[in-house]
Amino acid sequence: MTDEGRKQGDTTPKLRFYNSITKTCEEFVTRQDGVVKWYVCGPTVYDSAHVGHARTYVSFDVIRRVLSEYFGYHVVYAMNITDIDDKIIKRACELDVGDLEKACEEVATRFEAEFFEDMAALGVKMPTVVVRATKYIEKIRQFVEKLEQQGFAYEANGSVYFDLQKYKQRWTSPVFVGADAIDETEIATEKKHKADFVLWKKAKENEPRYASKWGDGRPGWHIECSTMAIDTLGVLDVHSGGVDLAFPHHENEMAQSQAFLGKERLGESRWSRFFIHTGHLHVEGCKMSKSLKNFVTIRDILKSAGPRTLRMLFLLHNWGSDMEFGVQSLEYARSVEQKIANFLSLCEARGRTGSATEEDAAETGDAILLLKKTRDGVHEALCNNVDTRRAVLLLSDLVSSVRKRAESIDSAVLAMIGGYIRRMCRIFGLLGGEDAGWGAELDVARILCKFRGEVRKFARERRPHSELYKMCDEVREELRQAGYVIEDSGDSSSVRRRV
Q: Which InterPro entries does the entry mention (predicted)?
């Protein structure tokens, strides 16, 4: 664990997650001390990713960072890419290419590359491992064959189905939804029971296919993830995805994976200890989705809102709850982001200029107590299902309180407060290696700032050179237009990036 995680993690509160399986908030305990084996359902790469996808993967990126950088876990984070699917085939058919299999590969390759470019733009860390369905065909076939040998699967008309009734005779598996629920897209007359789901699909005419003992076909939706997750990580600590994957996908994954591994390996434990799901992202009350044609692509939204603003928007909502996406929520996120960025610039400027102008021991003491209260509150929030909304609001309140009396607080204490906020922002992914986007441009801005301060001082000492003040104002305005704000305090000036 990190120093802070070790120090605070030994006392209550303990880290807890809402588990979609048990529908309760449980203490987070991994199978191997200090290690998290986490499998996340990645995208089906047939089109551009939208803001709903951004919400899911940024949220998991934040949780991953909190687990590793705050609580000190070693996180092994595996993601799958579904690169063969009905939607990919449909998109490939639209290309009107003679070789459909090649067209499917082109579609999947193009949109997978675009997806990871979007994730990089959002500051989402690359997975530890990326696995693709088309690279696992042989292992998927072997997985299905073993289920059939165990009596959990049966062949019908060239397709293979999972026998859910047989499974329930041997396993008492938690379910995410009611027992009578069914995925309507998989109704087939040859199934023994309406809730049975397909493991291997009989090939249709003119679509990609793979040879098998049951005839040509391709994997079902759920079997891909089980095969890749078990091959990569084995038994899991965390499995995650959007809430729309809870049923049927994750419930079916759980059943076939536990049947495959058997009680000999699992005992009375579950294949994955935790399932966590992000909530829907709504636009005007409706879920953002491609089928409703109410989606905004990640690339389009990044033209009007920066990646930090978008990340802040998601941080300000509980990741497991539905959220409304719109202009007002974006503007609020931008205001919080700017408020914190301005405060960090203030702390940095005070670090260069030295002591406060009116240091007050009482104000400094109050600031120290407020920092401790905030640290405790943020720790409690992160222990409570990684409640980033509460954590960010506490940081924002700390900024508001300290900013009003910054000139009265000891510089070392102000630097300590700024350092804590900067660390939490870095953990949340709001700051990169260049400290919130400040690169070589900052050096130029500081030189100009210093020059401007010297000119102002010269003008005050050698009146009536009022033209020099005018020059200073012109420089300040030019820098503002270039993206920098200069603030004057007594005989000194500080610079920050305009957010």
A: Cys-tRNA-ligase, Cys-tRNA/MSH_ligase, Rossmann-like_a/b/a_fold, tRNA-synt_1_cat_dom, tRNAsynth_Ia_anticodon-bd
| Bridge partners, 274 (sequence order) | 238
Contact in structure between 27 and 15 (CB atoms under 8 Å): yes
Say which residues have a Cβ less than 8 Å from residue 488's Cβ, sequence separation at least 6.
456
Q: pLDDT per residue over 58-94, tens digit each?
A: 999 999 999 999 999 999 999 999 999 999 999 999 8
Q: Identify the burial level of 169 via C-beta atoms within 10 angstroms of its C-beta, where 0-12 means exposed, 13-18 middle and 19 or more buried.
A: exposed
**Rounded CA gap, 349 and 211, in Å?**
67
Q: What is the pLDDT of residue 400?
A: 97
What is the structure's pLDDT at 361? 86
- Write the CB contacts of 450 (distance below 8 Å, at least 6 apart in sequence): 493
Q: Model-level pTM? A: 0.85
Per domain, the residue ranges of the chain are 3-324, 332-427, 440-497
Q: Is 70 exceeded by the pLDDT of residue 279? A: yes
Q: Locate 219 and state its tokens.
A: 């994997």
Q: What pLDDT score does 458 carry?
A: 72
For 97-118, the pLDDT digits (tens) are 778 889 999 999 999 999 999 9
The mean pLDDT value for 270-284 works out to 93
Domain 332-427, what fold? Four Helix Bundle (Hemerythrin (Met), subunit A) (1.20.120)
Query: Partners of 25 in the beta sheet?
Result: 18
Beta carbons within 8 Å of 267's beta carbon, 6+ residues apart? none
Angle, CA 218 vertex, CA 214 and CA 222 arms, to 5° = 110
The architecture in CATH of the region 3-324 reads: 3-Layer(aba) Sandwich (3.40)
